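Batch manifest line 670
LIGAND: LLP
JOB: complex structure
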Amino acid sequence: EQHTVLLGRGGSDTSAAYLAARLAAARCEIWTDVPGMFTANPRDIPAARLLRALDYDEAQEIASTGAKVLHPRAIAPARATQIPLEIRCTQHPELEGTLIASRPGYASAQVKAISTKGGVSLISMDTNAMWQQVGFLADIFAVFKRHGLSIDLVSTSEMNVTVSLDPSANALEPAVIDALLSDLAPLCRARRIGPCAAISLVGRNIRGILHQLGPVLELFEEQKVYLLSQAASDLNLSFVVDEEEAGRLVRRLHAHLFEGHDAPLELGPAWQDLFAAPEPHADAAAAADDRWWSRRRADLLLRAAAGTPRYVYDQATLQAHARHLTALTSLDRVLYAVKANPHPEILRLFAAEGLGFECVSPGEVERVLSINPDLAPERVLFTPNFAPRHEYADALARGVRVTLDNLHPLQAWPDLFAGREIFVRLDPGQGRGHHAYVRTAGASSKFGVEPEQLDRLAALAEQAGARIIGLHAHTGSGVRDPDNWLQTALFLIEQAARFPHVHTLDLGGGLGVPERPGQAPLDLLALDARLAEVRAAHPGFRLWMEPGRYLVAQAGVLLASCTQLKTKGDVRYVGLDAGMHTLIRPALYGAHHPIINLSRQTPRTLTAHVVGPICETGDTLGFSRRLPADTAEGDVFLLDVVGAYGAAMSSHYNLRGFAAEEILPTPPGP
Ligand code: LLP
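JOB STATUS: finished
ARTIFACT:
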């Protein structure tokens, strides 16, 4: 006898799994609105990566700790019958999905996902009755049972038991909690903590990889962790923290675990790379930005034919960015931080736009002045760090302005500074920036004089006969929050109180540009407005800034040629003739640069790691990038947003030679 049954929505995955089990199906495909399970919820973290393979236990754990892709109950019937479950995306059948099976290709211990559950309440119960007591836990758990409350995580010590109540399993109305607390009162001192969020790191044998989590656990340094629980199944490690802190923490955890160059190789593409790009060929960041090069493909292909790897800088973009900054009314001077890109043509162009220059070595000073012989030396600020004595002597002799970054020069070489006007770099205490290596303030940074030493600084300057006319601070690089420079300005103004001759405040550089899809640009007008208020309140000071990246990053692209293709295990590789010797930012900081195959406009359905020719595993320019499926040897690739710290940081490692560099002139107007 046959029955027709209607399978409702919201449960159809469980029904499908049961049917597959009954039919002893070879496979059960769940076609849904997302391609699979991800390393985090892509709505919160667009950089979340597709999980290509999970075993049943991992999938079950991810489903039950927060992800909504599959109902946790759908997994048991498949596991019992060992039927592989495959999640696929209805709207994008070309995308690979998540395969859930008992033997995924790689079963090593590793964190697979971060899940978050909000709205969690903790009940913390203090007692001195528990120590060597029989039945205390049974007594208090009985109270929870009486109130129909299901406990999720538990941690116990001699004096305290803390449990979490999962909102998806309980109706956590205040009245229910109040009744619970009053029934617990005779047994212990109970209180509610919340709202909290449970953040779980999910993966097989999580105990076996605790040592790898060292840097990840450091993220909890400033964080109150109410409860830490490691599942007996060894599949998850959960932290309960204040709910409002959870988003920030998860973003940082995710960046640490899944976005850097240490990210596991077998992860699939990032959500943002799959869905953020409207055009098939353009990378999301580029498309969002309407990048200059998308209108100059033909020119670029021609340039690539002259030889790759090759950096190409767009003159119009360089000029436009210089003018964005010279248009800011709150600034008296914009100095270009030459370290970002010392290409001679760029130095000439910026001098013509009226910029000054910030140099950190005699080589930079020499190049700026020899390219621009008419430039007044006082428009150059020399800001070295731990430089030898003779570099200061030479700079002063050339008439450029000099910034001291330590007390040492005044202490050890007072004669050098007698009768001189100098700047001093201060440490504002709190570093900012896109990576720990570029945060240049605070206790762990080697830069600047700390405020506690300013009396000593003033005394040393006085003894040497030097006059401190400028104060300087730079918090770090790649900052997109305009308040950063407001805070720096206020800090410097406060410190300037003890230096009567100070008339100039250099607020540093660090102006960030969007690097990953979905990042908002720095709001320059907001920056200008904040600094204008500072000026109005403190008209005695001139304000300077010294950006590098902002002026050049988006003007530059790197052209490279595809050398070889390879598949190893599950992982595809696309090789380029550019590598970490040409562009070290991905290897050094885990930086993200959009990578586009300029030669092909076909749909990007190949997921591959883009690597260079250098003999190091770190020589990867991009992980799991979406590329045209017909990518082939000889194709011209473009790496975007590389005008800053690209060529400037390249090396001759492996004796591979430097990339060519050139400026793409603005075509004559109509
Ligand atoms: N001023 C001082 C004192 C600096 O130390 C720096 C950068 C700047 C200005 C310019 O910062 P910018 O505006 O370019 O962010 N190689 C790293 C960046 C290192 C920045 C070092 N100092 C990167 O590729 O991101």
